[in-house]
Predict the structure.
Amino acid sequence: MKKKKRLLLLGDILGVVVTCVIFLVPFYFMLVQSLKSKAEANKLSISWPSELHFENYIEVFKHGNYQLVTAFKNSGILTLFTVLGLLVTAAMAAYVIQRRHDKVMTGIQSVIMLGLMIPAAILPTINLLQTLHIYKTMFSMVMIEIALQTPFAIMLYRGYMASIPRELEEAARIDGCTRWQIFQKVIFPLLKPIQATLIILVGVQTFNDFTNPLYFLPGSENTTVQLTLYSYQGQLASSFNLLFADIIVITLPMLILFIIFNKKIVDGMVAGSVKG
Amino acid sequence: MKKKVVSLVLAGAMTLSLALTGCGGGGSDSGDAPASDSGSGSEEASDSGDSEGGDKQFEGITLKWWGGNAENNAGTQAVMEAATEKLGMEFEVEVNPGGSEGDNILKTRMASGDLPDFLVYNSGSKLHDLNPSRGFLDISDWDIIDKFDDAFLSSVTIDDAVYGAPQSSTQAGAVIYYKPDYEELGLEVPHTWDEFLDNCKALADAGKTPVYFTGGETWATQVLFLGDYYNIAAKNPDFADDYTNGKAKYADVPEATRSWTKYEDLVDYLNADKSAATVTDGNFAIATGEATHWFILTQQLPLILENADNPDDIGVFGVPGEDADDHGLTVWEPMSWYVNKDSENIEAIKAFFEFYYSEEALDLYFETYGANGPSCVKGYELPESVCNAVRVDMQQYFDDGKTVPALEYQSPIKGTTCEQMTTAVGLGQMSGEEAAAMYDDDCKKSAVQLGYDWE
Amino acid sequence: MKTKKERSLYPVWFVLPSLIIFVIFFLWPIISSLYYSLTVWNFDTAKFCGLDNYKLFFSEHSMSSSVVHTLIYAFGTSALKVVLAFFIAIFLTSAIKTKGFIRSAVFFPNLVSMMAVGLAFSYMMHPTKGLLNVVIQAFGGTAIDFLGNPSTALISIIMTDVWKGLSISVVIYIAGIQSIDKTYYEAASIDGATGWQQLKHITLPLVAPSQNSIIILSLIGGLRSFDLIWAMTGGGPGFSTDVLASVIYKQYAAGFYGLSTAGNVVMLILISVIAFPLQHFLNKREEAIQG
């Protein structure tokens, strides 16, 4: 047993070292660039800055009339509504799809699962939005994000739903709950673990989305956080420091979200796979 | 899990917008605008505007405009500030991403009737592609257009309607070089390609990097190819028409094939980080003599000069051909201002443009930012502060009549993978002849999409 | 009789919000793209041109190489993720103490946008001053032009993709492993099975469902992948990292909307041809393994 302990310790040490080198060094690299002067960052070296330039972060915020603040607001709204909308609609759909095994549901499920395979058609979508007169609105952007992520959310929910015994619904039914109440009061609260997983994955995906806002939500007042990277595009090479400072600033919210839900990410999936 | 791929299908577009732009589009994304603070111009403008009374008939009007970092430069901002002070209107810029990304956004916004008051875009064939009459105002009855030279006007005129006014000066696709290296080794400006290669050899022998290549920003690698057009046109005056009609092919016309094989001659003379170097790296490399030559648009001159010790260190010559007596320059017209025909502030825009092309404002622009080449405002002379590379080296070609407009002003057809091929040939991954043949196929595809019948 | 009861308990309209959003904002544009792919389309007008776009698309000189790159990319990233993530997950479900830290660290790349990852890695892979080459040279190696050399460019991007996307696979595996009934292992230990035997005969078969999800998701992701490639090389140098999606994008960027849409349809077919049979096969395998 002593031998086993030593082996584990060795595993710990090796694991930490390898992880740090492979997964954390790139972040360290970004961090040091963001604190350097323009000229020093241009050398792309990983050494600690000869002088700390925290003002890079202030500059990133001030850039382009506080564009970053607008961007945070927009991305925040987009992410919030996408996550909320998806959590509810996908849960409802997955619940019925998982519980019923008739032909209609199987059909609907196959259609929705197509979304996992097929890439979205950008141009026809813009065309459609224009026809509906909702192009360039936050509403249409949220709808598109939800549509794109529905298949994945339903897939996760469905796996998890299988672990919830049907007897619960039948019991609630006998207690006189309506069908909506059964879902709302009995099933939905039980979905918490998988929802934590979804909040992280969908939140990160939406917040970090670059392309869709670029096409479906143009305009400076509609800018989202990933698009702020554009500001440093023209002078990419000459302001690496600001570019990396921007990257770090726009990654922080997701890091915080991750810290909150970290432990639960696996839990949701574990339960889901039990009988999935 | 799948999520993370689902909708990001087209991201990465950022690099793309750099990468995909043609040289013509280069103007919008070469963009190391010295003013990194894109919005501040209008901010400051509004502050100073309030401080003075006087005749500011457009007080209270805010003009929204759309342009790349390159156009929202210190010069533009200075002129706008001055306009605010004089005329009262304020400006609010929306910086576009440039390149093809910018093109797409513009096209989409035009289709949905959502343009700012005025904006910057290419002149020439890319303007034609836009079908400008559906969004841009015909300004042919404005007084300012009498000031512009014919070469410029033809690049913004479609069916007798004039849409654009020059944002900046002309520019060329040429060789920008570091003069102290030439002086040190006693080299002369080459007038043929062979002389140029001899110079490169001498530079390499002296331990210098003869040619700078920016494979990290592929649009810029096209400049040798596109800038060599003078030499094609010199021998084949009808090339542009024949090419547009599918009769002249790069693989068949010897001078045109040569534009591609010239890259092969340079393979051994390039910088070590040729595959990754960016245009910004290039600005620095030429300014400091890290490399001697660079095939690039002269819009980079003001940015190179920012890093140079002495403005006279930097010179320009046209891409050399075979004939020493016919050494010319391939010229690009500037990006242009276009006015939204549905703007509510057309009078204010008109007044702003009248100011923009006044001697005072032109001087202010060129003194603040510098010039990419001779101005296309007739009779206007660039201020003394503009570098000799423009006022002497480039001006000489104009004075001698040895200039030709780039192919994109004479033909709407351009292969979409041009820059990938120039990069591949430049890095020695493909032969010039192979590339010429492939490029012909590529052009055919464009032609079909543009409705030409090539067989 | 059970069916009847189900019906009364689970109202069909629950599916409608999801279904309506999905159909309007995703499915309908795709269906209309089938029509646009048969036209020369510039957003204002769509002129019918039959199958010309498809012919042109297939005559694209980088077409065949881009299909090959797409397959290499998809199978490469998928295989690496399936294998590496499995061992990491085994490691993280063992008795080691630092698993919380390591799992978080492995997850970090997932929090950063593709854009940012692409930029950071292309700088780290810079041929002269990039971090990786500085390290290689410090150990006496010669610098590698990761992204500038056609023979290393694609593999460099694949590695970056694995770095960024590994964590999700790890999480799915961990979930799968944790849900395996512990009594199997206890029984096996009593029978004297070694750790390796347990891994091979208990863990591996029982994580098959997780593994299948990983294979399908990462393979489809790989087939459609584009963003990272575009951020790092733009399909270059030359055409050496062009994949289907980037060829399609270039045509889109050139304003050839009909042609680009035809490319999208081609990609859709390619993905279906690979994904559906694969899923069928994996499901069969899963059933066979679990009896």
About this structure: Chain B touches chain C through 49 residues (CB under 8 Å). Confidence is low (pLDDT under 50) at residues 1-53 of chain B. Chain B is about 45% helix and 15% strand.
